[in-house]
């Protein structure tokens, strides 16, 4: 067994949710005793496991005051905003929750939708047993979670149970989940002005608001791709309910099976092991495979005429010769080969799948899509990787709302994008053609197409050599997320008067101008900014933005760009919490800047500061030390005492 750490290192390791002592025994062999006071923290729900590992600490319930803050904060925003008529029933509910955070969050999320009806509060209170106050057992927690489940409308119950298809602790991509809900006919749209995906988003957000699912990665800035996961206790509950209703059949990796009752029909199959089960599959509506090896023995699914969803994402299909059987799945609505490495052909007969709404092909070796694909008039989502060529006629896919093309090669294809007027999410990677030539008209054609796409909310553009993306675009009023990597300079169509809803901007440019920073500061909805300069660090001359700049900015990151805090005067960036910037140390040794330019006190909401020190080795260590000391002093005297990380890149 190879040791995880050499003797010279001190380490802190957290191992979450251990169910058995055996894995701990294996891990322990790799952890060295080096007398450097290293720390290992493990968590478990099983007391016997904790005691065998040693140093058992039983977490105490929240205090009554902390419970009230959590409970009232979730419902009313803060404890002080709780109306008087709710005090008594709140106390009763908190007593029954017994200081268990999950119980408090789940119950308060349920009551947040009933804040105007005291009778419903009393009904909820009466439905909760007192078990958690004396013994926070699973049965008592289940009862509280069941209240939230039974309070859901029927369509959300189905959406929640559907999550049992995914393995424990699996990060579920929001976009993938909603598209699957749509394929399963869980999303019914009555308002013609609202798309099915938008309605599915509202379902997703409702489950989030009720704390039945959780955001898996809070650093995501594009709401289309935000991942979620299900808390272990919630997953246990919905798996139990799913078994009772024969909603999902799960075959697990340790030979356990969440099988339907005898005589029940298998409709949704989730395979998480290495062998294909012996099941009657003629009534299957959904197949999802999470095993890398099982696809080698995957039978033809031609007999599954009712199949709506075939999700093979991230399985290994590199050696799989053909998927021709899919053309016989006439009811198929969702097909994902993403991340499989499949390098066979997509059959020409794919045009038979007239109900197909989602086709995910990124991360495959498919060389080209058949021209017949433009006949899939119901297609809402299409993604292809940089190895896959698109056919002419893309303009006829008029139902497309989301399109991802990693290898856009021609101005002709870029021009066709302008006909896809329902697009809400567009991601394109501009690249050279198969002959290695760059189509010089492609950027202009792309910008021209953007001017026709009035519904775009998320836009990603990647180029190979930092081409010019300037042009006239007046249609991006709904844009909320923009990612560009890379372009010569800030595109002229990034204007505050047009991009009224732009909240996240990630952009890599060759050159930044002072006026670019001024423009970005006037984007009224911008909460996340990541501005990077390609190549060597760029130093701007001293300048100051206006005091009302960046009014909504929460996270700002300037990479390879010397950007001092003094650029932002008092009043600017009032909500900034996370600030990353670079410093050219030579500027301080030459006297162009002083340590007073590093003051942080005028940024009232600051929580995290990350500073990169750039320069030449010849720079005096005394200057570097003085800059570091000033930064640490500013962090120490700031009312929020923000965390500070300084990296020397000299």
From TrEMBL:
Annotated Disease resistance R13L4/SHOC-2-like LRR domain residues: 283-644
Species this protein is from: Panicum virgatum
InterPro entries: Apaf_helical (IPR042197), Disease_R_plants (IPR044974), LRR_dom_sf (IPR032675), LRR_R13L4/SHOC2-like (IPR055414), NB-ARC (IPR002182), P-loop_NTPase (IPR027417), WH-like_DNA-bd_sf (IPR036388), WHD_DRP (IPR058922)
Keywords: Plant defense, Repeat
Protein's recorded name: NB-ARC domain-containing protein
Residue stretches making up the NB-ARC domain: 10-73
Pfam families: LRR_14 (PF23598), NB-ARC (PF00931), WHD_DRP (PF23559)
Biological process annotations from GO: defense response to bacterium; innate immune response-activating signaling pathway; plant-type hypersensitive response
């Amino acid at each position: 067994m190879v040791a995880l750490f050499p003797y010279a290192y001190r380490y802190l390791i957290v191992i979450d949710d251990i169910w058995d002592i055996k894995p701990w025994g294996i891990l322990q062999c790799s952890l060295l005793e080096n007398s450097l006071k290293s720390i290992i923290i493990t968590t478990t729900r099983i007391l016997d496991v904790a005691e065998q590992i040693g140093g058992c600490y039983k977490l105490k319930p929240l205090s009554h005051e902390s419970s009230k803050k959590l409970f009232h904060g979730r419902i009313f925003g803060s404890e002080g905003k709780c109306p008087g008529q709710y005090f008594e029933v709140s106390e009763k509910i908190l007593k029954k929750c017994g200081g268990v955070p999950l119980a408090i969050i789940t119950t308060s999320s349920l009551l947040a939708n009933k804040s105007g009806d005291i009778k419903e509060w009393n009904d909820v209170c009466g439905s909760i047993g007192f078990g958690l106050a004396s013994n926070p057992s699973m049965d008592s927690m289940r009862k509280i979670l069941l209240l939230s489940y039974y309070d859901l409308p029927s369509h959300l119950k189905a959406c929640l149970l559907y999550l049992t298809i995914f393995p424990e602790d699996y990060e579920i991509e929001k976009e993938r989940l909603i598209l699957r809900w749509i394929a399963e006919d869980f999303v019914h749209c009555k308002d013609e002005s609202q798309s099915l995906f938008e309605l599915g988003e509202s379902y997703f957000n409702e489950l989030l608001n009720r704390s039945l699912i959780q955001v898996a990665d809070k650093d995501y800035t594009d709401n289309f791709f935000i991942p979620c996961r299900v808390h272990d206790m919630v997953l246990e509950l919905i798996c139990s309910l799913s078994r009772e209703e024969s909603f999902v059949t799960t075959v697990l990796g340790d030979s356990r099976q969440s099988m339907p009752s005898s005589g029940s029909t298998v409709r949704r199959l989730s395979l998480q092991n290495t062998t294909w089960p012996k099941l009657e599959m003629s009534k299957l509506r959904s197949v999802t495979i999470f095993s890398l090896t099982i696809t080698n023995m995957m039978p033809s699914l031609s007999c599954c005429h009712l199949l709506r969803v075939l999700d093979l994402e991230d399985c290994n299909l590199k050696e799989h010769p053909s998927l021709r059987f899919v053309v016989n799945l006439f009811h198929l609505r969702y097909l994902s080969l993403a991340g499989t490495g499949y390098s066979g052909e997509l059959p020409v007969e794919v045009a038979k799948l007239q109900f197909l709404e989602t086709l995910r092909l990124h991360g495959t070796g498919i060389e080209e899509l058949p021209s017949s694909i433009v006949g899939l008039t119901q297609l809402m989502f299409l993604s292809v990787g940089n190895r896959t060529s698109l056919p002419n006629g893309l303009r006829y896919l008029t139902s497309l709302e989301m399109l991802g093309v990693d290898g856009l090669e021609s101005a002709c294809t870029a021009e066709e994008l302008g006909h896809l007027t329902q697009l809400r999410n567009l991601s394109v990677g501009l690249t050279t053609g198969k002959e290695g030539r760059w189509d010089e008209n492609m950027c202009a054609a792309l910008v021209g197409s953007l001017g026709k796409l009035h519904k775009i909310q998320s836009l990603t553009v990647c180029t190979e050599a930092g081409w010019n993306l300037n042009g006239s675009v007046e249609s991006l009023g709904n844009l909320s997320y923009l990612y560009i990597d890379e372009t010569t300079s800030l595109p002229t169509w990034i204007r505050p008067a047009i991009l009224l809803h732009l909240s996240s901007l990630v952009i890599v440019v060759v050159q930044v101008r002072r006026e670019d920073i001024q423009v970005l500061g006037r984007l009224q909805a911008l909460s996340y900014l990541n501005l990077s300069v390609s190549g060597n660090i760029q130093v701007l001359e001293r300048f100051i933005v206006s005091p009302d700049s960046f009014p909504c900015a929460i996270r700002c990151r300037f990479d390879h760009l010397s950007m001092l805090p003094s650029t932002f005067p008092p009043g600017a960036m009032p909500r900034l919490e996370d600030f990353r910037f670079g410093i050219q140390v030579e500027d301080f040794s030459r006297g162009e800047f002083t340590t007073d330019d590093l003051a942080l006190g005028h940024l009232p909401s600051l929580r995290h500061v990350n500073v990169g020190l750039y320069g030449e080795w010849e720079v005096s260590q005394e200057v570097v030390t003085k800059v570091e000391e000033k930064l640490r002093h500013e962090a120490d005297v700031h009312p929020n005492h923000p965390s500070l990380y300084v990296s020397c890149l000299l």
